[in-house]
Here is the input.
Amino acid sequence: MSSAPDSPRTAAQSNFIRTIIDEDLRVGKYAERRWAGEPGTAGVHRGALPDPAVIRTRFPPEPNGYLHIGHAKSICLNFGLAREYGGRCHLRFDDTNPEKEEQEYVDSIVDAVHWLGFEWRDEQEDNLYYASDYFDELYRMAEWLVEAGHAYVDSQSAEQVRETRGTLTEPGRDSPFRNRGPQENLRLLREMRDGRHAEGTHVLRAKIDMASPNLNLRDPALYRIRFASHHRTGDKWCIYPMYDYAHPIEDALENITHSLCTLEFEDHRPLYDWLLERLAEGGFFDKPLPQQIEFARLNLTYTITSKRKLQELIRGGHVDGWDDPRMTTLAGLRRRGYTPEAIRLFCDRIGVAKADSWVDMGTLELALRDDLEGKASRAVAVLDPLKLVIANWPEERVETCEAPIHPQQPERGKRVFPISRELWIEREDFAETPPKGFFRLFPGNRVRLRYGYVIECTGFEKDADGRVTEVRAQALEDSKSGTPGSDAYKVKGNLHWVSAAHALDAEVRLYDRLYANPYPGAGDADHLASLNPDSKKVIRAKLEPTLASAMAGDLHQFERHGYFVADRVDSKPGAPVFNRAVTLKDSWGGRR
Ligand code: ATP
Ligand code: MG
Here is the structure.
């Protein structure tokens, strides 16, 4: 979907998930639930007060990387729905896979969700959970499944399991271990847990149907042996639950009503339901059980939304870390100058659908422009400086000029900066011989120095290579902006400038899209082959002196150039470094 920028959708717009929730609420589907104040099985919740949350959703990241813009869609959806309906949204670290998870990622996720403006804590509840806290419960339920004949230990190799799974057109074949008795299965499962078997020698599988047309129901694995240290449980466990086993149970323990996930899990839903039905029969959970609902994942052009590929960019040295301003991680977007409001606005505008599609990067950039237009203070920056000398201006004379902090918000006051004999102007604002329609500076032409005087170009100098090194002009004495009669001068060009003696000399990073190709991650394509070689240009620019006091994270519109943020990492007091967040206009429309 290329959601048209001129038809922004609003948060109140309905979608199929709201329709489901509305109907559930109308029939009172979840009205009888009880909540003990913390996650637990039926025994824990039964007898507690009715659940105060009308609905419960959750955002369940695996802490194996930093969150990206795709996760923002899921966060806005889950936390947004909970907020809207008077429910609760849990932040749950889905840390059942020991190998790739780290505390650094947990911390970055907590930061990112808070930064986006969402909260899992209130006066009554603190809904931050770790799937690894449920390892005991998960294991207890596995033993019950074995005893009830719903699961068995398979001692085939991974290779054999794969070979006997069948295909979309062929049924699978039963494992020779499928009819082991519950007592033998239980003994083996406990031995697995106790570290008595090597990795890969056994797996615990659900006993469902090897002939099911849905491959996910062909006796899926529930537990595997992994002698790996876990970032929270250390070496306590050497068997770890599979996602398809753990996830529905985590949801049920937390009283989740609507478990929203991306479309690739649609075929897993029958397993989700099968497992919870069995465990409800076993008395672990009361009905109604949580329901899984799938929505389309966000695919954004000119970027990738996969932690694994983002990781590859870092490993290959193509970017400077997870928070590189070109990364569409939330940490990178933040450093780039994105605001939480812009990202939430973007998520509102793209909505949720039931079919996968691509959203144009321009939609994200437009959301940032729309958010910053009314917020960002204005400032002047000369990015490619060329010296302008006003020949009739005395050397020692310095005057001040005034400009609004925001042209539509006079209440925000004015900024004041000096003008003197030597100024910096933008190199592209001067032409030796003007092309047709060029209204800026060229010999004999008059322009206004924005917030200053009207000048007339009298000449220029060049170096041996023919490069213009200096432009000369005369100021018209009675033309200063804001003084009586100054508008008697009619000129077409209006140039920005800074006083050379007073300018702040600063590093500015001109960021552009990280990829040159709109679909860098599509299919099996090697995304690294599509990198945009010009995604980062570092320059030294001449800035309005008032910018010296910019604090890390401050956002400005540099007139005519775009929105820039004082870099949060590299700015020093009095010496900010600026990142270009986005240009004023979309310059990618015609480029491909
Ligand atoms: P990745 O492939 O980048 O690792 P993931 O889906 O494996 O993504 P998780 O940490 O498991 O990452 O995801 C947490 C939640 O965010 C899940 O509910 C997932 O569906 C959702 N999510 C992840 N990527 C997207 C996306 N591109 N669009 C919408 N939701 C997403
Ligand atoms: Mg994942």
